[in-house]
Design goal:
mainly alpha; two-stranded antiparallel sheet; 2 strands; 212 residues; 58% helix
């Protein structure tokens, strides 16, 4: 991650190739049962109940084998790739730059928040989100700063998974996504839709830029 973001086709191809390479490397080394570290899941619902056959929380997990493999992959990815990269990034990047980069990506997220608030019929939050995006993209210089919050316009984050839930779509089976982590079928679908919308919006902005 860097302060200059150019999500063109070549850059996305490089990132995709790198991710595929990492995942292919893990796929070529099947997980042995002895290597698997089960997640430490807690069920507060059972805190005040007797430990009996009647006090079992059911989890819809038809993809258990895949989920276990992905959990183990994510654990190794975090330990050997993600956390070292984050530590190095934080060590060499000034706090002001880190905050600016974070604000930039949060501002991109306003695009999908606007869309999902509108799809849920929440026109008030949709309008506030659109206002935030307009203010931060202009006065805030492409979202590097967040003047909208100082003006009292707070974030109203929504995603397509929440939109599906709003209209009665069930969560579906438990699903562990590569790199992203625990999710479910509904939210994984929402992630794909939101990412596609954001990518299309960024591409549209770049195509209309004066340098083109």
């Amino acid at each position: 991650m860097s302060a200059t973001i150019q999500p063109g086709p070549f850059a996305r191809a490089v990132v995709l190739a790198a991710l595929v390479g990492v995942m292919a490397g893990c796929a070529s080394q099947p997980v042995r049962e002895s290597e698997f570290t089960p997640p430490k899941r807690q069920f507060p619902e059972l805190a005040n109940r007797e430990r009996s056959a009647n006090a079992i929380v059911g989890v819809d997990d038809p993809f258990e084998k895949f989920n276990r493999s992905m959990y183990n992959f994510n654990t190794r990815f975090d330990r050997h790739v993600f956390l070292p990269v984050v530590a190095g990034y934080q060590a060499v990047t000034p706090n002001l730059v880190e905050k600016g980069v974070s604000n930039f990506f949060i501002n991109l997220g306003e695009i999908t928040s606007f869309m999902n608030n509108a799809l849920q019929g929440n026109m008030r939050d949709s309008g506030a989100t659109l206002s935030r995006f307009a203010i931060n993209s202009t006065i805030g210089v492409l979202g590097l700063w967040d003047p909208a919050t100082r003006m009292g316009i707070d974030r109203r984050p929504e995603d397509f998974g929440q939109t599906l839930g709003h209209w009665g779509v069930g969560a579906g089976p438990y699903l562990v996504l590569p790199i992203v982590g625990p999710s479910n079928v509904r939210d994984a679908t929402g992630l794909v839709v939101d990412t596609t919308v954001r990518t299309a919006a960024v591409d549209a902005v770049l195509d209309d830029s004066p340098s083109k």
